Each structure stands twice: as structure tokens, then as C-alpha cells.
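Late entry, KG4 complex.
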Amino acid sequence: MIVLGIETTCDETAAAVVERFADGRGKILSNVVLSQVSEHAAFGGVVPEIAARAHVEALDFIVARAMKEAACDYERIDGIAAAAGPGLIGGVIVGLTTAKAIALVRNKPLVAVNHLEAHALTARLTDNTPFPYCLFLASGGHTQIVAVRGVGDYARIGTTHDDAIGEAFDKTAKLLGLGYPGGPQVEREAANGDANRFALPRPMHGRKDADFSLSGLKTALRLEAEKIAPLSDRDVADLCASFQQAVVDVVFDRLRAGLRIFRAKYGAPNALVAAGGVAANQAIRKMLHRLAFEHGTVLVAPPLELCTDNGAMIAWAGAERLALGWTDALDVAPRARWPLDEIAAAQGALQRTAAYK
Ligand code: KG4
Ligand code: ZN
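Prediction complete; structure with ligand written out below:
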């Protein structure tokens, strides 16, 4: 089964062609990502209107390139998948509408994929990870611990009460005058800094639930920075190192609680799976390895280019759904908000719609 996937929910215009074999293994035939980072950098964050326009300008070309690199024509494609949310609605509309047009013209089934589900299922594309597994999803917009029990079967174990982890990295970078996106910049600075110089809080530490809170940490960092302003290069490096270490400690503690909840409710997970841009952080990855080992499981962390937003994960999620016979009508709506644990319900609604027809 070969699926074309389109991703436009944030600031990456991406398309990919992925094959799924009958035994459940996957293969990426092409994976083209055009980052809009330079277009948003001057604003210190993603500007939705600029993002949507950039998607319109680039998407046709990116799709054509993905098809060409896969050496694939539309005859061989079994379905067209697009991220239908959650995300910046202008961009989502661009990607989903393009997918609908291709599906209509080429007479192929459409699969409306939840962007978070695509992150959640990437481990099956890269490592063929069997269900159930515990997902730690941390990106610029999301911070969640999820029990992934099957395609379309997700139970949220923990979430953030305020900022996402990637957002906290981005805000820290902005505060310290580093560029956007902040995660990689903070990580780079942290490598030369002293993580013990500033005593930053570890919010939610020791709680039984598996929720996160990052805004207190961000505020504490700002207060420390204000105390010693103007900042030298050393100060910036030390602040970054202290911040990153606090995040590592917070994630360790919250995920430990999450794994306990997982075990109690669903038994032993087959893996701890990391996804989202924050999983690119080497200090966080190292800690996740240790945590998985301590809990008698393994860490599955997709390669960096599959951790951040890409088309292959959308194509793959589309292929997994298509393999189950799940497709969507051409009038499926784009969604700015679409929590992962609402997917099963949406599937139910879809089946009801089909029955009604
Ligand atoms: O998954 P992603 O590409 O996009 C979405 O938000 O969906 O994640 C981007 C986020 C940004 O907030 C970025 O700062 C963060 O991931 N990030 C990192 C690193 N690389 C990217 N955070 C910490 N360390 C990194 N090395
Ligand atoms: Zn993402």
C-alpha cells in the first residue's frame, strides 16, 4: 500500500510518499520538507498568516517533488493523506484542500489524519513497535503522555497545564536574545554552561498524576536573568544549562509517574516512544534512555528528521488507517483543535455518517 502524505499544520510545508507492507512494516519512498523558519525568524515565532501564504506558494511544488523523488505516479498511489488538524487553521486548510483536490481528480481515497496521531504512530514506521506503548510527545504546541493501544485508540495519561515544553524552550531563547526556533539554540548554549549556577524550580515534582506545568519555570528563569542583567555570554550559557537541566528533571519525574499509571492501567508498555521536536534534544534523549531502562522497557526515538514535523508521518498514519479500511469523506472539516483522545469518537461519528448514507 502506497500513500502520499501532506503536512501543513505549522511552519513546515511537507509531503512524502510511504509504503506499508502487508506485514505492517513501512518504508519511506520520499520525504520532502520545506521549512519556513527564515520567514518567521524576524518575528520570534510562527506568524499564522505568513505561514498559510507560504504553504499556498510552496505546496504544489513540494508534492510534485515528493512524487518525483519516490519515482511514483498517481496510478500506484492507494490513498492521499493530509493532516486535518490540530494546528494553525489557515495552513491546515491549504494542506487538506490540496489533498481533497488530488483525491477527487485521481479518484483515490482521502484520509484525514490527526497530526498528533501521526507523531504517535511514527515509531511503527521506523521501528515496527507493537502496541501498546507509552508515548511522550513534546513539541512547540503539545506536551502529552499517551497510552497508544492501537490505531485510533489513544488514552491521554498526562498533559501540560500551561506552556508546551518546546514553547518554554522558544520563550527562554527569546528572553535571552537567542534566535528562533529556540530549542536547538538553547541546547547549543547549554553545552557550554553551568547547570548548577541557578536554582530553578522543578514544577509538579513528586505528584502522583503525570501532568506538567512549565510557566513557573519560565518565570523563575526571567527573574534570575533580570537580577544579573546585562547578561554576558557566560550568563546566557549558564541560564540555558540551568533551564535545560530543570526541564530534564521535570520530564524524568513526570514520565516516571506516567509510566506508573500506564503499568497500572494497561500493563507493561512495549516501549517508551519519544516524538515531537523536543525529542531532538540530546540531554532529554539521554535521560529518556535511562528512564526506559529503569522501567524495564526500551526507548524508541525516531531519527531527528522524523521527530520534527514531516510528511512521512502523515503518509504513514494514513496508510495505517487505510489498512483498516478507514477513509474520510471529501467534506471532512479542518480542525484547529483536535485532542488525540477524541479520535476514537470521531471514527465512531464517521461510521455513523457512512451508515446514514
Ligand atoms: O514537532 P515540532 O517540529 O513542531 C510542532 O510544534 O509541532 O516541534 C518544534 C518544537 C519547537 O518548540 C522547538 O524549539 C523544539 O521543538 N525543539 C527543541 C529542539 N529542537 C526543536 N527543543 C529542545 N531542544 C532541541 N534540540
Ligand atoms: Zn508536530
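The pocket of KG4 (ligand 1) is lined by residues 10, 139-141, 166-167, 169-170, 181-184, 187, 276-278, 280-281, 308-309 (CB under 6 Å). Will revisit in the morning.
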